[in-house]
Amino acid sequence: MPLFATDESGTYRLTGELTIFYAAMLKDELVALLGTAKAPLSLDLSGVEDIDTSGVQLLLMFKREAARRGASVSYSGHSPAVLAVLELLDLAGTLGDPVLIPNAVR
Amino acid sequence: MARDALVQEARELLAAMEQALMQIEAEGQDAEAINAVFRAAHTIKGSAGLFAFERIVSFTHIVESVLDRVRNGSQPLDANLLTLLLECSDYIAMLVDAIAARQEEQEPDAERRARLEAALTALLGVVTATPPPPATVAQPQGEPQGKVEVESGESVSSDNWHISLRFSPDVLRSGMDPLSFLRYLGTLGHIVHIVTLPDALPAAAEFDAETCYLGFEIDFASPVDRQTIEGVFEFVRDDSDIRILPPHSKVAEYISLIDGLPEPSGRLGEILVKGGALTESELTRVLAQQAAEPVPAKPLGALLVENDVVPQAVVAAALTKQKQGEEKRAQEQKFIKVEVSKLDALIDLVGELVIAGAGANVVARRQKDVQFEEATQALSSLVEQIRDAALTLRMVPIGEVFQRFPRVVRDISRELGKEIQLVVTGADTELDKSMVEKLSDPLMHIVRNAMDHGIEPTEARTAIGKPAAGTLRLNAFHESGCIVIEVSDDGRGLDRERILRKAIERGLVQPDQQLSDSDVFRLIFEPGFSTAETVTNLSGRGVGMDVVRKNIEALRGEVEVLSRPAQGTTVRIRLPLTLAIIDGFQVMTGEAVFVIPLDLVIECVDVSSHDTRHNILKLRGEPLPFVRLRELFELPEAGEVRESLVVVQYGQQRAGLVVDRLVGEFQAVIKPLGVLFSDMKGISGSTILGDGRVALILDVPHLIQRTARAQAAQSWPRQASALSDR
């Protein structure tokens, strides 16, 4: 299961699969989060075990939507699965935020 | 099937191309028409490229290069080039035919292709040679080059494949992940550069998490061939937009790419860079200048051209894209494309509905239940409307056939050295789509014949005071349930004596036989009959006119020839409006039920009050030949019946059919007769009645001819044997 558990500060944690199976549900939660949370938002991706195109789209959309509402979102702690996809799609610049590419992955 | 769609689209585009070329020839150069020609060639090439039909891509490419020069004014469009372009469009049509026949691996006519290519490249060569190179040479290395030659033939410098992917929005829902295709692609080579295009991502409110919005532009280094790369996307190819350009593709192919991509022209610069039409440094230069520009900044496209980093053609293509998109949308709203087989299935079903409705009517009448009868009557009137509506779906204007002829007339008149003008009227007369296809060859034969034999050479015309230019007319109109198509010329007319002489020579008629003009003219449709004294390239080999008649008769139609010496000839084709369902008039003889097409029925007369000797009846003072169906079909005598006579008319001729009983109007769904009955005269098909019985549909044109002949035979009994068809 993906979902996210909250930290105390402004950090939220995404875990499990970021795939088509959960995309619709996750989208609603992310949008709801934008409505309630105080800026700036930080999303911890270290628990993401798998991510597909729908997941990438979600992350892109979330960031755009936040910007549109004058908020800001940053992603952190990219898991190896996320990093691999960001590299495949050359999206590290867009979704990498603090570009942390661990040696293990390189 | 995508291949069929490609073939159909290409054929439509070729027709448009030809039409535009003809328009240029008739009305002089016109930027819009030249653009139309260019667009057609360009789109054909683009779609063929998607399927890797290399033969058509490489040929069209050269044509397009020449057209591009015409478009930007560096190549004059003279009569010779027009002819060359028309020939090229013919050759592209052959290549398209090869694709349709699944023989795209073979060159249809290598010699012709070589000749055309040589002529095209000669034109290209001349122009590239003229701008003197010194200016360019004098420029120091590394500086931006002078004017970029607007030339779509040049190749880009990129060594990589360029792949543009726009997946179908439903790809995720169908259980496929674009990422997995990219990963697999990565195993075949090296993804040098990839741009993920999030342009299509909507705002959160419209965002559907299960729809795929992302597009990808990929530069890919790999030694594999195109097929292997295409294979990667095999499962998504049908619904998705996938474009693959090989290394060192022509600029024109990138134009085509830009044309096809959905991103707005604001993304132009990025797409161009990622597409390899520009290098990064060229774009950086442009962007730097754009930042320095005072507001309002020029559009990126203009800057690119100003800096000569992009061939103008590329930018023009990107900028006109939006406009084309709007035009396309407007057209889409007006028409939808439907597979013909679907329409046919619908019409079959409507046919069954008509039969079932007739069945219900019969039951209702037997039940003698007034309400039930009323209900079935309401139903039948609706069924009738549905039938008519369904049939009009298949109706197309005959202009679809006629539009080929300006070109044909032009080419043939040149070949023959005659000046001939074509006048087309009634092009919006509609007829069944299935007939359009079968009509085109017979018409072609008739038109060729008219031009070759009918219209005299210019000197001969002026000598007898006719206008030097001959006139060929194509006309179409509706007449009592039929469509009539006429091909007329103002030429010398048919030579009655010569036709008769030839027919006697060949034993087709007896020397002492009396024949009316129309009987004589009908002889030209006999197999192997030609009166031409010289065999020309076009006609005169005695094949053609008999094929014409056969084709027309296969459509349940009729051909007739009218001719006047020195004034011209008209070939008139009469065809039924539809091949599927007719309003019929039901009659009975003994126990047998027959159906006569209602459109052909004039009136019904009680026979008993008339004198019926010699199978001729005097109706209001006019003699009317008739035939008894009982005798014709050798039905048993039924004893005392009160016979009726149905007067039928086809074209200008009338005849009577004597039957036992008149039953009434009836919608008949025509079922073709089996092969066994194909030689049977007098019957054109069968239909099923409401109570399940089979009725035969009478072939009225044949019966009328037959009675007319029988009458002639009686008037001149001596020649009867030569004319009877038994």
From TrEMBL, chain A:
Pfam families: STAS_2
Domain STAS: 12-106
Domain of life: Bacteria
Classification via InterPro entries: MlaB-like_STAS, MlaB_ABC_Transporter, STAS_dom, STAS_dom_sf
Protein name according to UniProt: STAS domain-containing protein
